[in-house]
Amino acid sequence: METSVQNTTSPAPIVFVDYHGTVGGGQIHLLTIIDGLDRTCFTPHVVCCQEGQFAEQVRLRGITPKIIPFGKGKLRYLRISLPAIWSFFKYIKEISARLVHVSGLQEAKLAAHACKRAKIPMVWLVAP
Predict the structure, then answer these.
(1) Phi, psi of 53 (to 5 degrees)
(2) What is the CATH number of domain 12-124?
């Protein structure tokens, strides 16, 4: 007798953050991860710090990227950094993110404080 197990819970929202607007090796790696996700288990959300080729590639995958400008990602630019961190915090709470994935220092600067305050784990993966 064959039985099937159905996923009765909704897919877990995972947020991927990318600082660069261009598509290079790190962005291709990130898109590969997104393409390989089991959409019955995970819902990918993408935060881009600027419009560009990467955001367009995300849209081609049927995902609407959230654009949160982060300036140069340096603390001396507090007038840009603090509102960006606050916007990111509100966004990850709004979608009930279960995990945040970053792949670089600029992304980590945006996400780390918000994730800690929201009590959402952050994974920092350095692409090969």
Answers:
(1) -60, -35
(2) 3.40.50.2000
28 residue type, one letter: I
The closest of 93, 63, 68, 87 to 17, measured between CA atoms, is 68
pTM of the model: 0.87
**Interval 63-78: pLDDT, tens:** 999 999 887 655 556 7
One digit per residue, pLDDT tens: the chain, 128 residues?
A: 444 445 558 999 999 999 988 999 889 999 999 999 999 999 999 999 999 999 999 999 999 999 998 876 555 567 778 889 999 999 999 999 999 999 888 889 889 999 999 999 999 987 55
Question: Tokens at residue 18, please?
Answer: 């990318």
Q: 80: how many CB neighbours lie within 10 A of its CB?
A: 15
Residue 5, pLDDT score: 45
Residues 6+ apart with CB under 8 A from 43: 10, 11, 12, 13, 14
CA angle 97, 28, 68 (to 5 degrees): 45
The CA distance from 114 to 88, in Å, is: 7
